[in-house]
Design a protein that fits this description.
77% of the residues lie in helices and 1% in strands. It is mostly helical. The protein is globular.
Amino acid sequence: MQRRLANFNIWTVGAFVIILMLFLPNLTIVTGLFTPSNDNWEHMKEFVLQQFVINSLILTLATATATILIGLSLAWLIAQYDFPFRRFLKWALILPLSIPPFIGAYTYHGILNFTGAVQTTLRDGVGMELDPAYFDIMNLPGAIFIYTMFLYPYVYTITQVYLSEQSASLIESTRLLGKGPWRTFFQVVLPISRISIIAGASLVVLEVLNDYGVVKYYGIQTFTTAIFQSWFGLGDLDTSIKLAASLMGFVIIILLIEKLLRGRRQYSYFSTKVRPLQLISLSGWKGFAAAGYGMLILSLGFFIPVIQLIDWTVLTFGTIPMEEFMRYVQNSVFVAALSATLIVVFALIVGNFARMVQGKYTKLLPKLTVLGYSIPGAVIAVAVVTAFVALDGYLAPLYLAIGLETTLVLSVSIVLLLSAYIIRFFAIGYNSIETGYDKIGTNFRDASRLLGAGPTKTFFKVDVPMMKGAIISGFILVFIDVLKEIPLTLILRPFNFDTLSTKAFQYASDEKIMEASQASLLIVGISALAIVIFYKILEKEMD
């Protein structure tokens, strides 16, 4: 036993350090509940907190419902039927994820406002004079539309993969019993897909609660906007912490509801002969209707915004100095690549520790590291700042001893931002790595150990080469999310440190919508390319 613990000592220490680093900062939010209330908090609690809750509930529930309807219907069409453009739509329907919702928000506002393409075409081309209020998208329904169009791929992707891999026996049995496609869908497909549907919808809900760009630009009061206002507008960190704690409680309730909705019912294969569904060919008007539906959703979620961004970029090209623009690109790629690298490395360490050291506590501890993804970025920002300010206070004597004139070192550095990214997005990288570990199993590792190789040598010589797909996938997914991140970056970036996402948001907030298109289009282009690469890796892994 002692020899075994000695062999795993380096992995145990490394994993515990990473777990504590990812989990402990969030505890500072909980302690904020017990601090004395001030006037700002009492005012918010009495007059506006209820409105924050109502708006947040409407946004999350309506968006979750809409994304389920769209994502599930598209997943079922792709998994069950063959129709024109199906192979293209199968992967292209993921592309709206490459457009951050805040970019979609200001793009659609630009398209629909009085001088936008829609109203201009109706006035000048058709001669129709309509009330501009009909095209107002800067409200709750407009925000729900934006979130739905750019977040439905979460439900679509998870459900489509599940249905494509599900045994065909279940569906074919219903056909033999004489059930039509509608009864098959509602009596078989919906029950067996419940877990994947809820998993995708929960990601959508968490993304809506985390978002700041859309609600800020559209003037909708939510928890996230309140945290920003109390912190930056009122300079009141204590009220921000209490709002963050309230939002964290809101998220916990949602996660508990998700757990209840999942239930204990599970659907697994009852035969080793698992094969995908046999596609039903749709011809004539049915085939074109299916293709038209898919192309409509793809156009609303990707083609229309991208075409508008390209048009604006052509009109404003050169207005932003190239040197300045390249600095934004370098900053964005730097923080996204470094964060993704650190997360993948940390995930490899924690994942390897979890599978080598068996026990109920070793299975539980890694789960603590993924909590960050369920916590909105504004909450994590408050937690990280509070923790780093306390750490700087503890290290202040050391700073003074080495001749520094300030006691705020870590809390105003890029380390603060990188730490927040790691806490927020660790779950994405870890899930990919954990899946890779599960896929390769332990047989090759055990064979290497029997041949005399140590755990560290086995890890680098055996495990890592076999997990290239999982490592690349985890890196790409984290890279995309960091590239699009707004709340964390706006709050925690060092002075005069802008990224493509923050600059696009600032331009849009200043009503310089066309100027915002250049940074936005580059974000979309990089993210779309990364998504295509990820899809190809996923397709290869499934084959």
